[in-house]
Specification:
Elements: H1 22-25, E1 31-33, H2 40-53, H3 62-75, E2 79-81, E3 84-85, E4 88-91, E5 98-108, E6 118-127, H4 131-146, H5 148-155, H6 160-171
Parallel strand pairs: 1-5, 3-6, 4-6
Antiparallel strand pairs: 2-3, 5-6
Helix pairs in contact: 2-3, 5-6
């Protein structure tokens, strides 16, 4: 863990930054390959449900999280273009940064600016009070996937285990 900025209310105790490594946020069992008949809504719902099924999100919060993410998507798409989307939410329902990933070999319309179908969806949930770290995590993901070679290597993986290994290998660089 790294030391972050010192809270204004207590200069004697620096806050500890959470582990924002991709391996910490995206566990291997939260990466999934989805089929051809998916929609933006079904992808979001399945990613949130996977977080619940793996015990990273409370069962009672699943529907609310799905609703809040799809509402946010209705205001502005989180599709980055080039086959990538990053639905995200800060919420009081999580204490740690968690995420799930959908690999969509056939692509799904996600309302991206370039009109390209989305092939990778990185859904992240962050503690509500962690705005700065939430932004850092999203920046790291966008930075990694802005690297065309890295994005191509990840997009070509149609196996969840191989994808997770590749993502973690990029994180170690």
């Amino acid at each position: 863990m790294t030391v972050s900025t010192v809270p204004a209310n207590d200069r004697n105790h620096p806050s500890i930054a959470p582990d924002l490594s991709f391996a910490s946020v995206f566990h291997a069992d939260t990466v999934m390959v989805l089929g051809e008949r998916e929609t933006k809504l079904s992808v979001v719902a399945k990613l949130v449900q996977r977080l619940s099924n793996t015990g990273r999100l409370g069962v009672n919060q699943t529907n609310e999280i799905i609703h809040r993410i799809t509402f946010r998507e209705s205001l502005a798409s989180t599709a980055f273009g080039r086959g990538l989307a990053f639905p995200h939410l800060r919420t009081p329902h999580v204490k740690n940064f968690i995420g799930s990933i959908a690999i969509l070999p056939s692509g799904v319309p996600f309302d991206s600016n370039d009109g390209a179908e989305t092939k990778l969806v990185f859904l992240t949930l962050s503690p509500y009070a962690s705005r700065e770290h939430h932004t850092q995590l999203l920046s790291r993901l966008v930075s990694l996937l802005s690297n065309k070679a890295a994005a191509v290597q990840l997009i070509k993986n149609e196996n969840a285990t191989a994808f997770h290994r590749t993502l973690c290998r990029f994180d170690a660089r």
